[in-house]
Design brief:
17% strand, TIM Barrel, 8-stranded mixed β-sheet, alpha/beta, Alpha-Beta Plaits
């Protein structure tokens, strides 16, 4: 049976084949949104990119294709160089805060004269078609998580090097003097990496209760490598945990092994609190008695409307950034809610560009986390790194996000990856 061909990808391939005999006068503009950070691939970002090329498409009467992976392709004949160059520059400017777009502008947006690059563009179009087909087939092969699958996964986890799937992200504060200071390094287990390694054909999210058990098991495994976590954390540490994990011997052992100069911030999800409010209150008070803090993670603007966040009395809260917050109505509603809290208790997360930072600062929020912050911290690492010519900023971002694995081995100054943003870089050995 012939495989089903996606309509847009097929149209692009057909168009390329149709103009092959006149390719000398034709040009393709490739915009690889699929290579950007996930938050920069939303429908809003796709619309922004489309608006940037709209004028060129109309004036040159070119063909426009939005592929299933969000890549945008424009193909036309005798397009004025000024038109296509202006469109390319505008798209690069819109996404300049993205780590890939900033470090690889020529790969992110490519102007391809088809007289020279026809075969390369056709190969790219066919690969997009094949990638989508493979993704569709992989999704079809996924089976729901069942008890027997969970048992197999848990057995495999016991012999699995958990360090390979531990990820981290730095949260920072902008001081009154305009400097950047590290708040903490947040550690969490990457479920996507675990699934890829030991359960590629199982939809681990399909059964909420079984997934909860899996998540708590991963918590304990992460706590069990506390020596490695502390060794890679010169300042403060934050762990994303289930509330139930706070009452386990694994957490007690983690606290017992913690250096005296360090304290922990435990991040918990609002849904976990709703389901275990009594346990949350006990856990919060226990942490406070021991000199530690609790943080409510992943809040949306609507969270402040259906929950009395003040009653939960957390030390910190993370608010999800969304471009929708720039809309006056949404921003005004949230602003009234945020006025009830000390801005120092708020961290704006998922900051993907300068717009998020500007919105936060306008609302007196000075603490941030997200891909844009990752790019800033990587830029600081590279600025003082004597080996910066041997890597890219995107590689630096990726290497800083992990504490083990082959991607980190490629760094010639790995100790610098662990340093908070305000620390001076160490010289290579």
């Amino acid at each position: 049976m012939a495989k089903p061909i996606p309509a847009v990808e097929q149209q692009l391939i057909d168009t390329l084949k149709r103009i092959e005999h006149i390719k000398a006068g034709s040009t393709a503009l490739l915009i690889r949104l699929s290579a950007l950070n996930p938050a920069n691939q939303s429908q809003n970002q796709v619309k922004m990119a489309l608006s940037a090329v709209n004028d060129m498409v109309i004036k040159s009467q070119s063909s426009l294709f939005v592929l299933s992976n969000n890549d945008i392709v424009v193909i036309g004949q005798n397009i004025l160089p000024q038109l296509i160059n202006e469109a390319a520059a505008t798209v690069r400017r819109i996404f300049q805060s993205d780590s890939f777009a900033a470090t690889h502008p020529g790969e992110f947006v490519r102007v391809c004269p088809l007289g020279r690059d026809f075969n390369e563009v056709l190969t790219y179009a066919k690969k997009c078609e094949d990638d989508l087909y493979q993704a569709q087939q992989s999704k079809k092969r996924e089976i729901p998580l069942a008890p027997e699958h969970l048992d197999a996964i848990l057995r495999n986890i016991q012999g699995f090097n958990i360090l390979k799937i531990i990820r981290r992200q730095e949260a920072i504060q902008i001081t009154p003097q305009g400097r950047l200071s590290s708040l903490f390094l947040e550690y969490f287990t990457s479920m996507a990496d675990l699934k890829k390694a030991i359960a590629p054909d199982v939809n681990v999210l399909s059964n909420r209760w079984l997934f909860q058990h899996l998540s708590e098991t991963l918590d304990k495994r992460m706590l069990g490598i506390f020596k490695e976590l502390f060794a890679h954390t010169p300042k403060n540490i934050s762990l994303n945990l289930n509330i139930a994990t706070i009452f386990t011997p694994a957490f007690e052992q983690f606290l017992a092994g913690m250096p005296e100069s360090m304290s922990i911030i435990v991040e918990v999800q609002l849904m976990d609190i709703i389901q275990n409010t009594h346990n949350y209150i006990i856990a919060r008070d226990l942490l406070h008695e021991a000199g530690h803090q609790i943080l409510i993670d992943g809040l949306h603007p609507i969270s402040f409307e259906f929950m009395d966040m003040k009653a939960l009395d957390s030390d910190l809260m993370k608010l999800n950034w969304s471009p929708a917050l720039t809309k006056e109505i949404e921003s005004e509603k949230l602003t009234k809610r945020l006025q009830e809290f000390d801005p120092n208790r708020l961290i704006l997360m998922r900051c993907e560009d300068e717009t998020a930072l500007c919105w936060g600062l306008m609302h007196k929020i000075t603490r941030f986390q997200g891909y844009f912050i990752d790019a800033l911290t990587a830029a600081k690492i590279r600025k003082g790194c004597p080996e910066r010519k041997n890597c890219t900023q995107a590689q630096c971002v990726s290497r800083k996000a992990g504490i083990a694995g082959t991607h980190r081995i490629g760094c010639l100054c790995p100790d610098n990856l662990d340093l908070p943003i305000e620390y001076k870089r160490k010289k290579s050995r």
